[in-house]
Amino acid sequence: MSAETPPTPAPDARVGGAGVVPRERIAKDLAAVPRVPGAPKPDPIIVADGVRRSFGGINAVDVEHLEVQRGAITALIGPNGAGKTTLFNLLTGFDKADVGEWSFEGRPVHGRTAARMASAGMVRTFQLTKALSRMTVIDNMRLGATGQRGENLLASLLPSVWRSQEAAITARAYELLERFKLDTKADDFAGSLSGGQRKLLEMARALMTHPTMVMLDEPMAGVNPALTQSLLGHITGLRDEGMTVLFVEHDMHMVRHISDWVVVMAEGRIVAEGPPETIMQDQAVVDAYLGAHHDTDLGDDRLLEDDVVEQYEAEAEAEEATQ
Amino acid sequence: MDWTRILTNVAGEAFAPATAAYALAAIGLNIHFGMTGLLNFGQAGFMLLGAYAYAITAIAGWPFFASVIAAMVAAVLFGILLGIPTLKLRGDYLSIVTIAAAEIVRIISRSTSLTSLTGGNSGLSGGDGYKESFESLCPFPDGSTTLWLWTYPNCTSNSWWLRLVAWVAVAIGCLLVWRWMRSPWGRVLKGIREDEDAVRALGKNVYGYKMQALVLGGIGGAIAGIFYTLPTSVQADAMGRTTTFNIWTILLLGGAATVFGPVLGSVLLWTVFMLVKSILRDAELSFITSTQSEAFSWMLVGLTLMLLVIFRPQGVLGDKKELAIDVR
Amino acid sequence: MRRGTGAVTLLVAALIAVVLQAWPAHAAASQPCTPDATTGCVTGTVKTAEGQPAAGVSITVEGAGGSSTVTTGDDGVWSVPVTAAGEYTVTIDPATLPEGEQLRDPSATTRTVKVLLNSQSRALFPLGEPTGAAPSAEPTQGATTAPTTDRPSGGDSSATGGVSGKRVMQQLANGLVFGLLLALASVGLSLIYGTTGLSSFAHGEQVTLGAILAYTFVQVVGMDLWLAAILATLCGAASGWLQDAGIWRPLRRRRVGLTQQMIVTIGLSMVLQYLFQFLLGGGRLRIDTTNPKPVAIGPVTLTVQSLLSAGIAAAVLAAAAVFLLYTRTGRATRAVSDNPALAAASGIGVERVIRIVWTGAAGLAALGGVLVGLYFQSTAWNMGGTVLLLMFAAVTLGGLGTAWGALAGSLVIGVVAEMSSLVIPSDMKYAGALLILILVLLVRPQGILGRRDRIG
């Protein structure tokens, strides 16, 4: 009956400390990686094989092989309906794959529940931010801490068992809140925060679990442009502390700014991989986006070239004519 | 109209064993709904199981505390059985399954084919001997005692002894909920109430926590069942859907997710109920019979529930901002 | 999931064991009056305030079959057999009560009960302090009898008979008839859920409303049964319109959450239920007092009335299906049910559709109520409460929010309820139907015809 209480990781083993891979090394490692879908990486944290998930006969995700480099920021992009979020849900245990297996940090983890993935060190955020609105900001943060003795039904009745741990958790929560500039809001209900602040809170709360890998589902969606820059800074900050980041994004400017590697999905498949500087020149990527009449700025100057625009318009007209 | 008698009765209702029992059942429901957001519409089923488990084992000669443990075990098993198929599904499935399960318990326990065990549809009465183990623990002398306006037997049936024990149980229930609400465990439940996926994403075993909450609240209901039936008799039909709905009214009246809400709600509901019923009865209105006055009082309970939910969902004690009413 | 299935299997096994163990006790229990085709029983148990049986209390039963006086036995039980159906007055003699005991309601020394042949009617006289009654005093105490479910057809009112092929056929036929009637009410409940997301606990009262309106029109006003049924259906539909206009639309406008709305329906259900009791009392009400005419179709015996009822139900359900499939409004209804936001965006008047659904659903429920009232041979203020859970079970079983699912679910529930009395005591048959609901949810949470993405 007792809730899952994974052992508390040593506070600084994962964040900061020796686990940090210097950015230059990541860049060097990735430079040698072939730019093909499913390319093997020198130091993968996730290795996935033959992952498929279908809804009503349509393959939402059909990934043959995927590796994610440890310590890097990997962007997962693709037009609407490409299966990015579904893949995300599968990897984080929020959905069950029809077939396929994958490992996290060398251990097979397919079929694990979301809670167990999170305790294994893979923590996620949501596209529609899930701030726990009717709890205070500080309680949101405290909830994130793992291995709490007071989260056991019976132990919770004896404050002496958990009080010291609670104090440590609270102190760490305030540190993180300060870093995310939310410390003045600590005692407000989370529901009273702005959209961007909620994103920050969700990220800060995720960090309370001492993750090895942070999965961000559209971290920029619905964020006030004024906050964008600081949010970007926080994400690169995660890498600089040694965490691996995988994020789903539409905003191509952001992808180019902060990612070390880009994986492009279309119609459930991975169609291209490569560094952000060159990925948008890949023909498969252009096809994927234009074929799906993607409605956002690709953030690539190529898009402004006349022939591409014309091609886009012609396709749009053809589409309208058939309706 | 005899106002002294009416007011004495109404005030007596405030600390009656049944009021305490309803408060306990509502404390249990508060763990379900107020703390975790679970829509349990079968709290009367937990009461019924508790009452029968207690009474049947007591008649079989078990000592009082063993019978109480039997009632708690019955609630634990019932909670686990209900939780397995539903706690992974959307909230309204739990509500339909719990109300159906409570009805199953009621139908089975009133069935004539179980008369040897449950007394069938006439139930179990004091004559069957289920009250003795409790009454034999009574430290008071025999007879009855008048305290200020109220006279009750010391030890038998609707007694001072029962009142004492029932309200001590309510106090313990409040203390536990108070402790839990301010603990990390309660914080996880609250998180689940707000958004269980978010809590899952933080590595908590949401299913396990929901199960714990369901079972704990059910134990509250089972113990309420014992105190509810000790002054009268164990009757399947006395703990049906109306009982569940009354418990909901009590919880929402007092305030969900508060410590004293269930107690205040129970006291308020039953004193007002008694007041309305007594006045209608004593007024000797030519157009209203006594059955009708009772029906009228129940209509008022239903109306209270409707108006509360629409206009003051946080109840008397609740904090409007921190209100647990709209779960997915 | 697999572990869960195992646990439930255990529960079922335990349940069966309990039932089997209790079986001989049932057969051995002495019954001073056993209802059969020519006998009805009026019975009760008098207990003291302490819950002890009160022996030697004098009870008089007077009515169409004459008058007789009995005294309660050592177990407090009394019972009077009567040979003619009708209304009987039961009088208790307060002077014969044990020392120190009094009636909880001293003015009510008489009860009026409706007695049917082949059934039991109970009259209870609670003893205790006049107004010191615990809040528990359920209004069902008093001369109330929940609508029992004696089948009009003979030979199946007790579960003691063997399982013969003939009985299987008979129960199957009864189940199908009952399922069709249940479907009338369930389809509306399901459509309301589909279009608004609301599980209405007050839908049972819409069913009762139909039944008691029919009773009022026939027995009080003196109308023809056919006319009364049509009028009751129309009044029911009007009540649905009013309910949506007066309560649910304003609540939707206030953006009151669905859980809140659901609790409001619970309150409304209580208000309506006790309003019915307030107006018509707690007794059984017979819509049609003529004796049912049996017809034999092969091995199955049904009454003309239940055959007609089933026919009407089938015809009305077919009409509803045609409406949903082929009319513009019907298609709009299904579109709203599928995806309200999308439907609204594509120009469908969602509010208008919801109003039509409420009106139609309440009308169907009222018609269902009339027919179920005829099928049960009587109705009562709390009939809807009994039927409501079966309706919920049917709707959930079929798949929340789908009209076809509600129909399929109702037939399953009807058949399971009636057939289960072949193997379990007949007073447990609704428990069997509800248990099926829980078992199906374990295996297929989306219901028989539901879509997977609706479950969460």
From TrEMBL, chain A:
InterPro entries: AAA+_ATPase (IPR003593), ABC_AA/LPS_Transport (IPR051120), ABC_transporter-like_ATP-bd (IPR003439), ABC_transporter-like_CS (IPR017871), BCA_ABC_TP_C (IPR032823), P-loop_NTPase (IPR027417). Residues 46-292 form the ABC transporter domain. CDD domains: ABC_Mj1267_LivG_branched. GO terms for cellular component: plasma membrane. Transmembrane segments: none annotated. The keyword Nucleotide-binding applies. It holds the Pfam family ABC_tran. Keywords: ATP-binding, Nucleotide-binding, Transport. One of its GO terms (molecular function) is ATP hydrolysis activity. PANTHER family: CONSERVED COMPONENT OF ABC TRANSPORTER FOR NATURAL AMINO ACIDS, CONSERVED COMPONENT OF ABC TRANSPORTER FOR NATURAL AMINO ACIDS-RELATED. This is ABC transporter ATP-binding protein.
From TrEMBL, chain B:
The keyword Membrane applies. It is found in: Cell membrane. CDD domains: TM_PBP1_LivM_like. Keywords: Cell membrane, Membrane, Transmembrane, Transmembrane helix. It comes from the Bacteria. InterPro entries: ABC_transp_permease, LivM-like. The chain crosses the membrane at residues 51-84, 160-181, 213-230, 250-275, 295-311. It is a multi-pass membrane protein. This is Branched-chain amino acid ABC transporter permease. It comes from Cellulomonas persica.
From TrEMBL, chain C:
GO terms for molecular function: carbohydrate binding; transmembrane transporter activity. InterPro entries: ABC_transp_permease (IPR001851), BCAA_transport_permease (IPR052157), Carb-bd-like_fold (IPR013784). Residues 59-78, 125-162 are annotated as: Disordered. GO terms for biological process: amino acid transport. It is a multi-pass membrane protein. Residues 138-161 have a biased composition (Polar residues). The chain crosses the membrane at residues 172-193, 224-242, 263-282, 302-326, 356-376, 388-416, 428-447. It is found in: Cell membrane. Residues 1-27 form the signal peptide. Gene3D superfamilies: Carboxypeptidase-like, regulatory domain. Its main location: membrane. GO terms for cellular component: plasma membrane. Keywords: Amino-acid transport, Cell membrane, Membrane, Signal, Transmembrane, Transmembrane helix, Transport. The keyword Transmembrane applies. Residues 67-77 have a biased composition (Low complexity). It comes from the Bacteria. The keyword Zinc does not apply. Belongs to the binding-protein-dependent transport system permease family. LivHM subfamily. This is Branched-chain amino acid ABC transporter permease. The lineage of its organism: Bacteria, Bacillati, Actinomycetota, Actinomycetes, Micrococcales.
